[in-house]
Amino acid sequence: MRKFLWRRVNELNEKKTLSSSLKKVILGIVLSTVAAFMLATYVITKREQIDYGMRDSENVLRTLSSNISSEMEKYMSLSRLIMTEDRLVTFLRASTLSVDIGMINDARYGIMDILNVTEGVDTVMVFREDMIMLATRNFMYIYDYDRMDGNEWKQEIYDGFGSTVVSLDTFGIAARKDSKAVVTVGRAIYDTSSQKRTGILLMNISNNVFERMLVRIRYNNICILGDDGTYIAGNKGYAQYFDDYFLSEKIKYRNIKIGGESQLLSGCQVPNLPIVILRVSPYGMEGIPFRMLYVLLFLLTVFMIIAVYVVLFIRQTITNPIYELSASMENNKKSGELRKIDVEVPYSELEMLEGDYNSMIDHVNELFDELVEKEQTLQRAELRVLQEQIKPHFLYNSIETIGYMAMDAGAEKVHDALETLGSFYRNFLSKGDREIPLSREIWIVKDYLSLQKLRYGDILEDEYHIDEKTQDFVVPKLILQPLVENCIYHGIRMKGEKGKIEITSKLVDGELHLTVKDTGVGMKQEDIDKILCSKREEMDSNDSESFGLWGTIERIRYYAGRDDVVRIASEIGEFTEIEFIIPDKSALMSRG
């Protein structure tokens, strides 16, 4: 038994087995879990690195932005103090003719006395309304006199109505000779007594102010720019990453590559100032949640142990008992007898499998007995069929003999009737065929109506509109004769006057549309609905009209494989029209 069991296991291993499938599934789950763990670790690590970098950059940029705003407030306050200096006020109030070099120098010295107590002011320029100007460090700048004479730069300051307006590089009217950028605080000067505008003050703040600010916070990965991309201070190499995307007080982020390594680029605009701060920082290890990763690794290890246990459990409690059941069934087969098996299995589900097999054995034995009995019955039936085959030939021969006797006696009409009857039965039997061409089905109807005319005379009239393309169309045998019979007995005859039966055939989209119409008494709509919708058990076999028509409809439905194959239209006292839709048999077989 054990030797056979191992051989059976080896045979099953050559095919796809439940055990191997379970192992593959569990292996797939383990590999998927490991892959998911690695992917989750990577995603969490990268996400936390990015989030940490963004939080760190946000803190730095917000702090620096706040420092720059505070520093600029100090210089704005200084500009208000300069505007009130007595010698400068005298210079601004003086008439054009009274202004001389001495007055200009006195005003300059007054401004410098104020500037001596502070740092970072590169120069101060003051323009009177008549464009007479003074500057504290005039020799350090190159002036654009054409723009200076224009009104565009002045209008920008005038629109501030005395408040400070911050711009870059002296509003474009002057630039340092060494091309260093400066931040300019401009404001219109109004006389404190008359409130009349007397001039414009421009204070240029050196880029050293921003350099010292970066030194204090000890960051060398920051670049300070103007809102037009002009470099002001910090790491000049980062100026290339500036674009309009960062012209927002909200901090924006972008991933860039420097030396093949991913870096986080952060940037924002200082509120209410034309200054943009950019910071480039690497993705470090500081933000990685190692505790979470350790927990995930522990869970993965636990899962691996559980997976190994499940594999061993399945092998010991499921696959091995199944192999034993299979071996017992194989021995049963080799014995040549269908006997029950008896194997010790650990679980009730496997006991159910064993019980089902034993029940199947009992059922198969019963089927064998029934099959033997049915085979004997079939043989007896075939013998009866052979005997019954003699009857049609006897009928043909008898009709033919009576026909010759009628001819000899001069009864030609009797001979014609017998000949029609023989033709009808010959086509009716159709050599036992279940399906025949439409042309033969039409001949059956014609022969049948010819016989009926002998009985009813001129009360019947038949008319045929058969499309040549439908002649060879295969239809179930005897689908028209029951309809025609129904037309005569339940339509035309009940009307009590001459009637006509019209048969039409045509092809529509490869399907045969076969119509039988009579000019009889018609049908009520409820009768039509009953015939079309009734089940077999709802029909009364004694109702020859309904049952015969319903049986023909059911045959067509069975032949076509669907229900929507018949249409009935009728008008009481006028007509009844029944249309069958019969699909092409060859098309049905190709779809099957």
UniProtKB/TrEMBL annotation:
Residue span(s) of domain Histidine kinase/HSP90-like ATPase: 478-584
UniProt KW Kinase keyword: yes
Any Gene Ontology CC annotation: plasma membrane
Molecular function via GO: phosphorelay sensor kinase activity
Residue ranges the record marks as coiled coil: 364-391
Pfam family, one: His_kinase
Keywords recorded for this protein, A-Z: Cell membrane, Coiled coil, Kinase, Membrane, Transferase, Transmembrane, Transmembrane helix
Main subcellular localisation: membrane
Localization in the cell: Cell membrane
Domain Signal transduction histidine kinase internal region: 381-458
Membrane topology value: Multi-pass membrane protein
The Cache domain, residue ranges: 55-272
Gene3D superfamilies assigned: 6.10.340.10, Histidine kinase-like ATPase, C-terminal domain
Record-linked InterPro entries: Bact_2-comp_sensor_kinase (IPR050640), dCache_1 (IPR033479), HATPase_C_sf (IPR036890), HATPase_dom (IPR003594), Sig_transdc_His_kin_internal (IPR010559)
Residue intervals passing through the bilayer: 25-45, 293-314
Listed name of the protein: Two component system histidine kinase
Organism: Butyrivibrio hungatei
